[in-house]
Every structure is written in C-alpha cells, then in structure tokens.
Amino acid sequence: MGLVRSTGDTPVADASRSRLPDRTMLAADAAYVLLLVAFWLAARHFAVEDRIHGHMASSFMAFALLLATYWFCGFGVAELLRRFLTNSAIRVLVPGLLLVPYLVFSLARGEFRWIYAAVLFGIPVFIAGLFEFLPPGGTRPSIGKLYWQDILALAMVGFPVEFGWLRGSFPHSGLSALPKLLLVDSALYAFLVVRRLENVGYDFRARIRDVLIGLRECSFFAPLAIALGIAIGFITPHGRMPRASSALAALLITFFFVAIPEELFFRGLLQNLLEGRIGYPKSLLVTAAVFGLSHFNKPQPFNWRYVLLATIAGIFYGRAWRDRRRILSSATTHTLVDVIWSLWFR
C-alpha cells in the first residue's frame, strides 16, 4: 500500500491513463474521416476528376493512403512504431510500403512505370537504412545535431520536391501534391521512427497557444511584407472578395499541402538540427536564408523578389516554431501569409 501511495499508481489512475491514448486515437480517426470528406468536397470544387480524366476512386484512395501516415504521425504513431518495430531489417523495409499508393493509382490507370516504382520505393528505404546502419553521431537515439547523414536525407527529400523530379509519377493536373506527400511520409518515418529526432514538434493535437503565436507572427510580418512587396513590385493589391468556399478551400489546401510539409522540412528538421550544431539565433537566420533560396525558381530563372520576401518570412516562421517548438504554430503563420497573398495580392 505504501508503494502505491508514494507513486500515485492506483487502479483507477492506471485505467484512466490507459484510456487516454485510445480516446486520442479515436478522435484522430474521426478527424481523419472528416478530412477525407473535406478533401473530397474540395476535389469536386476544383473539378479534379475532369482534370485527371477519370479514375477518381483509385486516385482518391492513393491520396487517402498517403494522408494516413501524414496525419497519424501527428498523433503519436511514430512512438508506437518505435516500440513495435524491434527488428532492424523490418524497420528499414517498412517504409517501402509507401509504394502502395503509387501502385493503386498507376495500375488502375495503366500508367505504371518501373523507374518511378523503383525511386518511390528506394528513397524511403534508403533513408531509413542510412539512419539505421549509419546513425548520425554514431549513437542511437542519434544526437540532435546536423550530420552528413541528415544533409543527404534532407537532400533526397527536398530536391525532388523543389525541382519536380517525381511529378511524372502522378502526371495529372491537380495531383502534384501526391509525390510531395509521399516524400513527407518518408521524412517523418526516417527522422521520427528510425533516427528518433527530438523536438521536431510534429503534433496535430492543437493548443490555443499554437494559434495565438501563429497569429502574432503573422501580424508582425504582414505589414512589412505588404509594404516591401508593393515597393519592389512583387505584389499588387486588389479589392475582390473571394467566395467563402474558395477561401476555405485555400486555407485547407495551403495548410496541408504547403505549410505543414515546408514547416516540417525547414523548421522541425533543418532549423532544429542546425540549432544543435550552431545554436540560436544563427540556426534561425541560416534556415530562413535556405528557405528563401528554395523559392528562387518560382518562376525561372531567378526571382530575387520572392527570395527576399521568403527569407524574411522564414524568420517569422522560425520564430513561431521556436516559441514552443511546435510546427502548428509556424504552419498557422505560413498558412495565413500564403492565403492572404493568394486571395488579395496576386
């Protein structure tokens, strides 16, 4: 009895704690279903079925499978996989299952290509194997500093997105986000499950502070961006009011397909690892510069205005993430900035 009292472990407390993960996952399951409904409605809004010339069921199934990893990693699934996958070989091969969405999509349409199948299987398995057999810093869990293995892994995920090298795997207008989602899933698995990197902040269990910090950094950046953007001729304001459906669709798509992937890559991974190597605020400034340069080719050949504004934006996004090391904070700022720009300043 003394042991129970000293630790606070009672049958009621144990049962309560055991139910919490179940409740969280039930909420995550319900939210995932609602998300699929929302994305289905968004696809209809943007006439995706016409743009991809049919086969909507298999295309949406591929998307749903990719979204599942992306979504549930934000609810602690990575921790469960760490405990469950105890065999090194299995741990390395499991991310090869990310090939399945491509097979679902391409075989139904008769568009299967061996080269894309090999690459989409090889990237996640190679990165997982790199961290498994050559752990950064030579220890497991790996040290939270940037090592050459991290640079290689980030390059294998980032360059195909930046230059559209895998666009042909889902070669239809409206599906460009699918190869990006696959690479995001690869990074989540490699860094969270195999490398076990801490303080990434990839968590969809939202807090009020996430929104407040995101709004704060947006309010700091927006006046500066608007004034500078108009001054250098990068943006032009207009007075058109978008329809509510268009604004909601823009928020949904920007948050999930732009803000979260980019904030995971640049803040949760790159800035996080750089901080362990060079400290803060150098990591903030270097990451912001890299983030800005990633916009150099939008459009070609070198859009210095976009690079400049994106670099400044990266400072505010990095500040939002650094407040509590929460990707939802920086993704909130990122989403609001992009949506305000796209709806009122194109």
Task: Give the SSE layout.
Layout: H1 2-7, H2 11-45, H3 48-51, H4 56-72, H5 77-84, H6 88-93, H7 99-109, H8 114-133, H9 148-163, H10 177-194, H11 208-231, H12 244-278, H13 282-293, H14 304-324, H15 327-344
Helix pairs in contact: 2-4, 2-12, 4-7, 4-10, 5-10, 8-9, 8-10, 9-10, 10-12, 11-14, 11-15, 12-13, 12-14, 12-15, 13-14, 14-15
Which structural traits does this protein have?
346 residues, mainly alpha, 73% helix, single chain, disordered N terminus
Describe the fold and architecture.
There is one protein chain. With 346 residues, the chain is mostly helical. It has helices at residues 2-7, 11-45, 48-51, 56-72, 77-84, 88-93, 99-109, 114-133, 148-163, 177-194, 208-231, 244-278, 282-293, 304-324, 327-344. 36% of the residues are buried.
Broad structural category: mainly alpha
> Using DSSP, what is the number of strands?
0
Mean pLDDT: 92
Poorly predicted spans: 1-9, 11-20
| Estimated helix fraction | over 70%
Question: Strand portion, in percent?
Answer: under 5%
- Radius of gyration from the alpha-carbon trace, in angstroms: 21 Å
Label the overall shape: globular
The separation of the N and C termini measures 68 Å
Biggest pleated-sheet summary = none
Helix and strand element order: HHHHHHHHHHHHHHH
Number of helices: 15
